[in-house]
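Hi support team,

I've been running sequence recovery on a batch of backbones for a student project. Most finish fine, but this one hangs at about 90% for roughly twenty minutes before it completes. I'm not sure whether the input is malformed or the queue is just slow. I've pasted the structure tokens below so you can try to reproduce it. Let me know if you need the job ID as well.

Thanks,
M.K.
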């Protein structure tokens, strides 16, 4: 039996989704995917995981997240989601982990929620979106949050979000089509040029969907940044060094061209399996990975071992549950 670890698996607690239905009426009439989102439970996830050989999933919150411009609401939504996720892990400790939700525009609230999520709820890391109100993560306003994440040697998982300036540039196309990969690379570029990556050597950053457009654009980005004195000064180890420290997942990034680009750019130990459930059907990515010519050792690394190396608690939980 496969022992896949799914790093890109969204939790959709009922209370959060009821509010999201009010914000986004499309969920009420959105077909099969919307039905999966609004009927999500931990037990449904486990059924799906068992069907597809997924031993454990790390839960995170997808876009639109918990920030809608109001501090009290953001704090309440973050706390409610984190406690629901922690409950799922307590009930199924060998099957789930979770990445705590915080909202960086509210610095005070984000720092308190980092403490609560990691120290009290025992989150396995922290999940962020690629932009908040159009501000990429390298914005100086978010620096205190990243300083704390680095101090804690935290795993930081970053999911793309709709950018208010670009989401409707192509009429009739959902922004997930092309804007998500580009917002991912925009936020990576902002973290790089503002020196956040270099100032956070002890944090481990995972960027979903194959790192977005980064594998294709990394050489171009490096060439441009190497010509900027300020960027070189903030990245004393070099731009390429900082970019190759990053991790990525295979969610909606497992086609042959995508995998070839990821394997050509990222270290083999930095590529993690992800399904994007319930937005994506796991069988699609699993079939594409199975069709790609990988050695047995590399396949095991991507599907299991690389993620276990980032989350030692999961390995201990597997042993306790009697899994190999």
């Amino acid at each position: 039996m496969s022992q896949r670890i799914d790093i890109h698996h969204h939790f959709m607690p009922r209370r959060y989704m009821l509010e999201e239905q009010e914000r986004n009426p499309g969920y009420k009439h959105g077909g099969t995917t919307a039905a999966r989102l609004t009927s999500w439970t931990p037990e449904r996830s486990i059924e799906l995981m068992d069907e597809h050989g997924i031993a454990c999933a790390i839960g995170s919150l997808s876009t639109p997240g918990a920030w809608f411009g109001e501090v009290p609401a953001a704090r309440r939504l973050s706390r409610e989601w984190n406690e629901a996720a922690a409950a799922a892990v307590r009930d199924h400790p060998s099957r789930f982990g979770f990445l705590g939700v915080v909202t960086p525009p509210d610095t005070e609230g984000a720092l308190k929620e980092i403490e609560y999520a990691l120290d009290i709820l025992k989150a396995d890391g922290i999940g962020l979106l690629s932009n908040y109100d159009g501000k990429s993560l390298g914005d100086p306003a978010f620096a205190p949050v990243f300083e704390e994440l680095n101090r804690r040697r935290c795993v930081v998982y970053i999911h793309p979000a709709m950018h208010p300036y670009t989401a409707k540039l192509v009429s009739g196309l959902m922004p997930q089509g092309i804007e998500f990969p580009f917002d991912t690379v925009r936020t990576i570029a902002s973290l790089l040029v503002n020196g956040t990556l270099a100032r956070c050597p002890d944090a481990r950053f995972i960027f979903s969907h194959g790192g977005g457009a980064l594998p294709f654009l990394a050489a171009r980005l490096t060439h441009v940044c190497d010509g900027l004195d300020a960027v070189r000064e903030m990245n004393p180890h070099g731009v390429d060094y900082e970019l190759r420290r990053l991790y990525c997942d295979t969610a909606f990034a497992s086609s042959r061209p995508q995998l070839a680009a990821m394997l050509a750019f990222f270290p083999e130990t930095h590529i993690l399996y992800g399904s994007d459930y319930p937005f994506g059907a796991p069988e699609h990515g699993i079939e594409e990975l199975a069709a790609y010519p990988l050695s047995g050792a590399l396949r095991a690394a991507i599907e299991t071992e690389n993620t276990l190396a980032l989350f030692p608690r999961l390995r201990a939980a597997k042993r306790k549950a009697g899994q190999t």
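--
Follow-up from support: It reproduced on our side and the slowdown came from queue contention, not your input. Residues 4-320 form a domain with the TIM Barrel fold (CATH 3.20.20.140). No action needed from you.
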